[in-house]
Amino acid sequence: MSVDDVGLQPQRTALAWSRTGLSVFVNALIVLRTGAVAEQPAILGLGFFLLLAAASSVVFGIWRMRHLGSHGSRSAPPWILMLATLWVAWIACLAGVASIAVSL
């Protein structure tokens, strides 16, 4: 294996952004349904935020794949997007727990 052989890790990482967006999207739909059924505006707001976050994650995944194709695999994603993804994941988890707590 040569030093220039980076394998498929960058492509797998870029695809992970799309998978993250899909999982946040499914969580957002569950949170939206729970907020609508329980008539909780805060839960509905979280659900809409998660829908936007899911769309952003998918868009970033597509951008990242194109960026890797044109700039090579040595470029790291911007740190602000990594931090935003971390917070979206935490908010998705908390929204899921909140939707379960409301439905009980």
Mean pLDDT: 79
Count, helices: 3
List SSEs in N-to-C order: HHH
Q: Residue ranges: pLDDT <50 for 5 or more in a row? A: none
Please compute the radius of gyration using only Cα atoms.
17 Å
Q: What overall form do the CA principal axes indicate?
A: elongated
Give the biggest beta sheet. Answer: none
Structural class: mainly alpha
Q: Count the strands?
A: 0
**Domains counted in the coordinates: how many?**
1
Distance between the termini: 55 Å
How would you sum up this structure, described in words?
By secondary structure, the protein is mainly α. It has helices spanning about 10-40, 40-70, 80-104. Helix 1 packs antiparallel against helix 2 (about 40-70), helix 1 (about 10-40) runs parallel beside helix 3 (about 80-104) and helix 2 packs antiparallel against helix 3. About 25% of the residues are buried.
What is the strand and helix layout of this fold?
Elements: H1 9-38, H2 41-71, H3 79-103
Helix pairs in contact: 1-2, 1-3, 2-3
Q: Top keywords for this entry?
A:
104 residues, mainly alpha
At a glance:
The protein contains three helices and no strands. The chain is mainly α.
